[in-house]
Design goal:
3 helices; disordered N terminus; Porin; 436 residues
Length: 436
């Protein structure tokens, strides 16, 4: 009697797993081979794309996934020494391509550049688009691993381009293969945290660092592969920062801030330290301008953290464009630490609305510096009545809502199936008797 019940529970379990998998598309394996049919690049991941386009009724955001029938194009290459770098080119849909170009030095390799080409004439993805043009976008990435090891990242990893955000899920990538298959050894991404075996409970978003140096002769990632980490402090407390000008408030930001800094100590060892911004010991400045809004935080220990927000007038969006850091590290070989990136495209939302993300976001500024942002809600330029406007949630928060919805729907369906089965069984049991 137990076997039939177990057989009925198994499809339900599969259904729950499938529904939970609605968070993103299914993973696919992509392989690039040389002329001898030997693999030089292998990748296994799923990916989502977020962009916007113009319709007759105005700008529209669209999210779509890399489909399971995506294919590796023959324009992919294993590269040639001092001539070209290995590249993986994936095509899907109506003329869309994702290109990963690799570079290496003596100890590490990386996805030096990622580019995405998308065709607005694809009406399935871009319905009612007023343009049929083909657009392209690109960015450097933080995808890197030791030579002869695979890159492994269970967490979601976002690559922010100018107009496109690519989110990788459960990614395994390796270039410069030595044995025609994935290595058993791996380099875990920073988003997965210090443990190589435990997936983090709160994934990070990642904004790519600036372009690394050319692979020959300079290494694309000069920092040593295994810097020593410092103890991670507690999650920083959230605080509301306000910047006002002659026309009123131009920036309203509620967030907790944490700095990740990698540097060389006086003994030439590499150290990674994490610092929390304490809002109670921070002096807040800022400036309002028609096209730019700035937030300048002068914190303890001579730490200066600067944010610049820009706008895209054509798409009516604001976004975080630049981060600068100046701080003093007494135990560093060079005590003055500076980092800047003025080509970011993070924390963006429609003008008049606010950007909100409950999940932790990690924004890469340089190879040696990134910012963790916790419980963020932010609005730049058009702030009415010193209050946040309508919320535009980050993609990770939206995806995280799918699991309880899917599981709840599956459980509701199960209750309905059991109820129908009970009613049918009861009806059949009464059908065997006749009134005398």
């Amino acid at each position: 009697m137990a076997a039939p019940g177990g057989a009925r529970r198994q499809p339900l379990l599969l259904l729950l797993l499938e529904l939970a998998g609605l968070m993103h598309g299914a993973s696919a394996v992509f392989v690039v081979q040389d002329g001898n049919k030997t693999a030089c690049i292998m990748a296994n991941f799923s990916a989502d794309f977020l962009t916007n386009y113009i319709t007759k009724t105005g700008p529209k955001n669209v999210t779509f996934s890399l489909p399971p029938n995506a294919k590796v194009l023959n324009t992919s290459s294993c590269g040639k020494e001092n001539a070209s770098n290995p590249s993986l080119v994936i095509a899907f849909g109506g003329g869309h391509t994702l290109n990963l170009t690799f570079a290496r030095n003596a100890t590490r390799y990386s996805v030096q550049l990622m580019s995405f080409v998308y065709d607005l004439s694809d009406t399935q993805i871009f319905p009612s688009a007023i343009s049929n043009e083909t657009k392209s976008d690109e960015s450097i990435t933080d995808i890197m691993a030791d030579i002869n090891k695979k890159y492994r990242c269970v967490s979601s990893n976002q690559i922010h381009m100018k107009n496109v955000t690519v989110t990788f899920h459960n990614a395994t990538i390796q270039a410069y293969l030595s044995n025609d298959s994935f290595s058993k050894e791996e380099t875990r991404c920073m988003q997965d945290g210090p443990s190589p075996t435990v997936s983090p409970t709160t994934p990070h978003h990642s904004t790519s660092p600036p372009h690394p140096s050319p692979p020959h002769p300079s290494p694309p990632h000069p920092s040593p592969p295994h810097p020593s980490p410092s103890p991670v402090p507690e999650i920083p407390s959230s605080y509301t920062y306000t910047v006002s000008g002659t026309n009123g408030t131009c920036l309203l930001a509620r967030m907790g801030l944490q700095l990740n800094v990698t540097y060389k100590k006086k003994d030439n060892t590499t150290m990674t330290r994490v610092f929390n911004i304490n809002p109670n010991k921070t002096h807040v400045n800022g400036h309002c301008a028609p096209q730019q809004v700035t937030l300048d935080l002068q914190s303890e220990s001579s730490t200066s953290l600067f944010f610049l927000f820009g706008m895209n007038a054509s798409s009516s969006h604001f976004f975080l464009q630049e981060i600068q850091l100046n701080m003093t590290l007494p135990d560093a070989k060079d005590p003055t630490f500076k980092a800047t990136n003025n080509s970011l495209r993070a924390l963006q939302a429609t003008m008049g609305n606010s950007y909100k993300c409950n999940a932790e976001e990690q924004i890469w500024v340089t190879e040696a510096f990134s910012v963790n942002i916790f419980q963020v809600q932010i609005q730049a330029f058009q702030v009415e009545g010193d209050k946040f406007g309508s919320v535009e949630e980050c993609q990770l928060d939206e995806n995280n809502m799918l699991i309880p919805i899917a599981v709840g729907g599956a459980l509701a369906g199960l209750v309905l199936i059991v109820l129908i089965a009970y009613l049918i069984g009861r009806k059949r049991s009464h059908a065997g008797y006749q009134t005398i």
